[in-house]
Amino acid sequence: MNPPSTPQPYLAQGTAAPVGAEPGKGRAVESEDEALVRRMAAGDDQALGALYDRWQSVVHGVVARMLRQADDVEDVVEETFWQAWRQASRFDRTRGAVQTWLLTIARSRALDRVRALRRRREEPLEGDDGQIVVQQAAEGDPGLDAEISERRRLVVAALSGLPAEQREALELGYFGGLSQSEIAERTRQPLGTVKTRMRLALQKLRSQLQVLGNEGEGSG
Amino acid sequence: MSDGMTHEQAREALEALALDALDASERGAVMAHVASCAICQSELAALENTAGELALAAAPIPMSPAQRDRIRARLMARTSADRVSRDPLAAAVPLRVESGSAASDAGVRELRPYMKVRRTFGPAAWMAMAASLVAIVGVGAFLKARGERDAARASLAAVQAASGTQLAALDSLRTTLKAREQMIASLIGPQVAVMTLTSTMPTAPTARMFWDQQHDTWTFVGHHVPMPKAGRTYQMWLVTPTSKISAGTFMPSQNGEVMMQATHAMPKDSLAAVAVTDEPMGGSPQPTTAPMMVAAK
Question: pTM of the entire structure?
Fold first, then answer.
């Protein structure tokens, strides 16, 4: 087992992408995660182990939020890192940060499982009552890399600034894997309303993250 | 929405596309526009980056040390095998699992390579039942078999040193050892495809199929498989684009364990899925029930 990564201040030494930063901009220096993915692409499984150690609790949190069965969660966590290993050579740092890439894989794999289960069992989704899944970032998120914890704090802060109905549309779409029509049906809102809420929500989130990221960069 | 989507119409749908929340009827038209619009491509990339940040909103949940190490060990085993499959010359060199992993608990340190094969095709109805299109090493089953083989090998050495009166026991152990070696080969050979079967039942049995393509051997390992109802049995099916071929019937042990082997030659590209159905005792010529477990290849 690799030792945990040394906690780093957010954006310390300009090595990480600011939350909400436009892909490929302002990141001349390779981040720690990017270095790990580059080594993975070269066949270094110790780099995969290090990436796993850094991100396993976050990936587990995302997947566990989307799936009920512990066995499913474990499988999807494993498949997430396995896919990252297999596709490391295709990672393009100009298109986004490693964490976005990795968590997108996690969400996609979890959604595959969610949708397959739903097709088989006609099972309602967790959180289908509009349950708000965003939780306030615990102070420092014990056990979490400091840089990741800071990123999480910014995302939670940005989400908290959204109107509840917009946040709900985002959460049902992102974590619940619902289409806009399904969200409209679930929330008993007109489809056009759901579309507007989702569009505004992601635009505001993007804007908020850029603002908060810049503030963090300025203070860091 | 028609295929003739304007830039403005497509632009308004990019947020939903980035969240993978577009309805299927709309998705194709938006994607078609994005494919030919550099502005939308750039905007979509930025929105996908933002959408990706949403994952951080879920509270991190540390795994238990056992679970964390178990997944880590499986990943390391798979990467080792993956490296070897990329470099066949390394196949002769035993690979090692990291210390501190679940594998070390079983006293097993070495892994031999296997070749992972993944393809995505097949009959839509059966493919739709598969939760994942993955091929992975069944570390638990492999380690168990490996441990048994090592035990048999140690016993063989002891017997060889004993008197001639133990030759019968020696022969028996040789037979056991050979059977174990063959089984291990069918699990980890260089041309073994591994498919994870996903249960459609609430009790979530798990199973893996090891297809030794070199020797046409199919090894099915299942856990937590419930006993079928009286007069019923389970039947394994090898599904091709044009047929469903019975690979035999099986019953789980009292504790839900299954280990079954079958031999059936099949071209590598013909298999679409493997599936298990509940059938009348003795099996059926064709499946008569929906699969209770299925894996797409």
Answer: 0.53
**Rounded CA separation B293/B296 (Å):** 10
Whether domain A125-220 has CATH 1.10.10.10: yes
- B96/B82 same-domain check: yes
B8 lies within 8 A of chain A by CB: no
- pLDDT tens for each residue of A120-156: 655 444 444 334 445 544 444 555 677 778 888 888 8
Measure in Å the smallest separation between the Cα of B84 and chain A Cα atoms.
10
Residue B41: its chain A contacts at CB < 8 A?
none
ipTM of predicted assembly, 2 dp = 0.75
Range list for CATH 1.10.1740.10 in chain A? 27-123
pLDDT in tens, B148-191: 666 666 565 555 555 555 666 666 677 677 777 677 777 766 67
Asked whether residue B228 falls in the same domain as residue B149, the answer is no
Strand partners, B238: B245, B274
Residue B276 shares a structural domain with residue B212:
yes
On whether the CB atoms of residues A133 and A63 are closer than 8 A, the answer is no
Taking alpha carbons only, the member of A190, A33, A62, A182 closest to residue B54 is A62
The answer to whether the CB atoms of A155 and B54 lie below 8 A apart is yes
Q: Which residues of A touch B100 (CB under 8 A)?
A: 1
